[in-house]
Each structure stands twice: as structure tokens, then as C-alpha cells.
């Protein structure tokens, strides 16, 4: 019979408690406890336990499912522990002591530093800097060595098409060889190095060949009253690789696993994308007809709880990462990157568009992310040197902005910006610390997020609040004066604000509302769920009126010399784009200014593309007249007819579609938890 009972736990609580779920500190030292005495079913009721003392007992290991989601401090001194890897089940652990466990070595210290991302104190010593080195530098070096070992000795051994038996054989040989031959660091850490090398090698195979990981991770527990958040390094992202789908057409594959492209038929009006998992990559090729873009990858990497059957999570926002050394704010073409941040459900992912690899993944179990935005901050690093780093802001249903230092795999802070959900965020192109957040509380706030120091201390402050008449859905800064005017598409119209900070008023009403054609008259009352600038002057906006995308002139519509607030102005329409006749809202649009393209998805999984380069010169003229006819799309990219395991998903909505600045890649976000990546031919 177990030595631990409910009564004992209540008695040993500090202070004594009447309910298990209220216990935050628990002393179970000097009870001669063995591993079998730690009953997971009983411990699972300690949902708010933060400090646990198990010192002076007889424990040789930890059970894998103690379910202590809020544990921060753990004392295991004077036991008989032989292994520490089970401690990874306590991701919030900050302080850990296990002195006088004779079987534990320096290698175990390095293992817990790697596994516990929040660990600060180990056996009474501050290990923050060393742990960062282990997690970042050590992992990077070993990953490079493992990759080089594969390329040199094993890559050519794998045929273009390979069977399951060939996969099993080469995997076994590679894992044995890489653990024997990859050496790094002092010999005293050889056990840790072999442990990490095996882990990295398995992840490498999973990424490169679509092979399953030998993961001993426990099923994710449902969070209750607690927020679980984690910034995933390539190691952790690889543990989720089974949830990253490269959808393909199984009707065209053989019994062998294949990574060769599969053909698709030309698409018809009805799309039928696949919805089940597969490890093989999808690639399609056109038949006789020329196309300007081809589907490259189909990924499912935002699943709730990493569920294999999640085809309900909506994907909302994506934005390409700026290139640090290219002068991103000067030349959008040079600054083009193939890494894109996407968000939806509980996670934010960074994806390499060329390979389809999920590079990093960040999760908050109680969040639903709606928007992401990049900025580049010049931060002080060691020895007082300064270096530019990309920072990603992510926000959503909880009204909180998460700030993520991507290169360090670290969410260093948050801003509690609004009490209601945040619909969209964007950074100023001229003030890198200035972030706009548009919320369901009918406010748009301007924040200075500050610059974190070398210890990630930062101070955020609110600079401005813009009052809206209805919920803001999309925001855009006017390119010619991004420090003076902001445009917003809202549930009940399109509005403009003066955002100049030298004005004394911190809370401001809108300065103008724009009228648009409505049958035979003009109206201000309509939902604007798509908004972007095509160039310095031409605005593209999409309204709730079926099939209605307008192009209009900012300079000819907005009277900057007028006085007073809440003025009504008529949008000077330049053209109207032909689009789907659906009345479905929130299928937003985007632009590629450098290539003069507009993109918008529809309710059938298709992407409508408009090359407007032949129109913009005429529109730029002061006498430029409205195009009489609707402008037809240059091309409509139909959703490929893909099947997986013989099944098709329900109707696919394209919530968002974004191109990189050079229009090399096109990222399509859908309503069925599938990210599609197209590449321009």
C-alpha cells in the first residue's frame, strides 16, 4: 500500500490545507518514499502545486505522468536517482536541486539544462548563461555536425524511391554511426553529447525524410486554469513533426515511400483538397497550360494539442521575416526572405517556404492567435556590442501581445494591451519600437515596446489610443506619411486618424470616414475586411458587398487641409476588381507593391491574382479616370485536387494569402488548418 494518502498530503502542506487543489507548497521529505509511492492519480489533483520537497527519500526515478503543471521549485537531494530525463514533464521548473544522488553526473546537469527551458538555479547555482549556451550554441554545433555526417556518408546510399525496409536499415546504420563519430566538447560530457546527437539525428531524419520520431513523450494534458506556453527550438518542433502534413495524392504513389513529385489534374471549379496526414511531400506540376505559380507544400502545423485530426483550426495571419543585413526598410526586393511566420489556434509557426520545414513553433494553450508582425531591433549584447535582431509580435483572443526573440527561441515578454481580443497588429516602418494593436474593444492603441537589454528587461508604454466607431479589422499606415496618418477597415466603414505624436491629445476620435458607391448612391456604412496599399497612393479595400474590391486614391480622397474631426469624405474610385460573388466576410486581401500585384482568396480555396502594373501609371496622373469595367484577375489559382487516404475535407475558405516582397512564394492560410505554399514558376 502506498505511503502517500490524501490525508498525508493535506497534513504535509505548508501551510496545512483542506483541499488538494489549494496546496502550493508541499514537504514530503524524510518519508522513505520509493518511486512506486508517487501515485500519478493522486498527484494529478495537485494542480496548483509550485514547490515540492522530496529530499531524503529512496527515489530512483520519477514517474512520467505526475501532472504538476505549475511546479516551479523541486528539491530531490539525498535520493538514489539514476536518470533525470523524466523531469521534462515539469516545463515551468525554475529551481532544481538533486545533490547527493550518487548516480547522477555532470552529463545529467547538462540534460536538465537542455530539457527545462525555464530553469534558472541548479543545485543552488545560477545556470542561466550556461543553459543558454547548451540550448543554443551546443545544439547548433551538433546539428551542423550531424547534417554534415549524413551528407558525406549516407545521403547517396538512399535511392530516389525507397522501401520501408531500406528506411529501417539506413536509419539504424546512421544512428549508430553518428553517435560513434560525432564528437564535440570535453570527454567528461561524452554521454550527454551522444544523447543529444541521437536526438538530433532522429529529428533530422524526421525532417528530411518524413520518418517517425522515436519519441517517448507523454500525451499532452488538457490545461485547467493554467496557461502553458513554450517557445520551441528545432528539437521541440521536431517532436511535433507528426503534426506537420505534406499532403500528397496517394492514388499516384506506390507501396514504397516516395519523395518524388506527384502530378495533379488541372483544377476545375470544385476543389477537393486532401485532409489526412502523410509524411511525403506534395508537389504538383502543370500539364500543357502555362501557370505562373505551382503548389509546393501543404502543411498542417497549427493543430490544437498537436491533434492528428484537427481540421477545424482557422489560420489567420502570415508575414515574411525581414532579412537582417539587407537594409530591409530601403529595398523590399533585397529584403525578401523565404521564412514566413504564420498564426492560428494556439500556435505561431516559422516556416521555410522552400523546404516546407517548420523551423520553430511557439504555443500558448489558452490562446487563439489572430495576428503576427515583425520588427527589427538593435539590441545590446555581450561586451556592450550592438546587434540587430528580428522580433516577432503575436496577439489574439486574450488581448495580450507576446514578444518573441526568434533567434534565441525565447518569448521574452508580453503586453496586456486590451481587455478584449486583438484583431490585428502592425509595426511602424519608421519607428521600429512602435506597435499598433487593433482590438474588439473598439480601440486602436499605439505602444512603444522598448528595446530589451541583455537580460531581456524591457519597458513598454502606451503612446496613443484611437477611438473607433466599430470593431477595427484591418489597419494600414499611409506610406507617404506613416507617422501622421493611419487607415483602418472596420465593421462599419473605413476610417482615418491623425496619429502625429506631437499633438497633445492622447485619446483621439477618427478624423475622416470614407464613402463608397452603393448601387446608385454613396454610403459610409459597410464592413471593410480587407485593406492594403498597392503603392504610395493607391488603396485596395474589400467590403462586405458581394464581389466588391475597390482601388482608390488616398491623396485625392483625403482632404488634409480640412479642419475638424469625423468628416465624411468620398473615396475617389480608380477601379473595381472582379472577384467572387460570395457574401462571406473576413476573407482578406494583400498586396505586393514591388510587383504591383493584389491577391485575395475565396470561399472555394482559390487565389485570385491581379497584375496591375499596366494601370498604375495612368492612376498616378492627377487626371486619372476610373476604369469603366471591372478588372479581371490575371489568374485564378485553383486548389489542387489532392486526396489523402481517399478522403476529402469540407469546403475550404482562404482566410489570407500573402506573397514575399519579391513574389517568389505565395502563402495561403485556410479555414481547415492547412497552410499552402505556392512558388512562382
From TrEMBL:
Superkingdom of source: Eukaryota
GO CC annotation, single: kinetochore
Acidic residues compositional bias, start-end: 215-231
Chain positions covered by the region annotation Disordered: 215-237, 258-291
Gene Ontology terms describing biological process: chromatin organization; DNA replication; establishment of protein localization to chromatin
Localization per Swiss-Prot or TrEMBL: Chromosome, Centromere, Kinetochore; Chromosome, Telomere; Cytoplasm, Cytoskeleton, Microtubule organizing center, Centrosome; Nucleus
Domain Leucine-rich repeat and WD repeat-containing protein 1 WD: 292-680
Gene3D superfamilies in the cross-refs: Ribonuclease Inhibitor (3.80.10.10), YVTN repeat-like/Quinoprotein amine dehydrogenase (2.130.10.10)
Similarity field: Belongs to the LRWD1 family.
Name this protein carries in UniProt: Leucine-rich repeat and WD repeat-containing protein 1
Upper classification of the organism: Eukaryota, Metazoa, Chordata, Craniata, Vertebrata
Name of the gene: Lrwd1
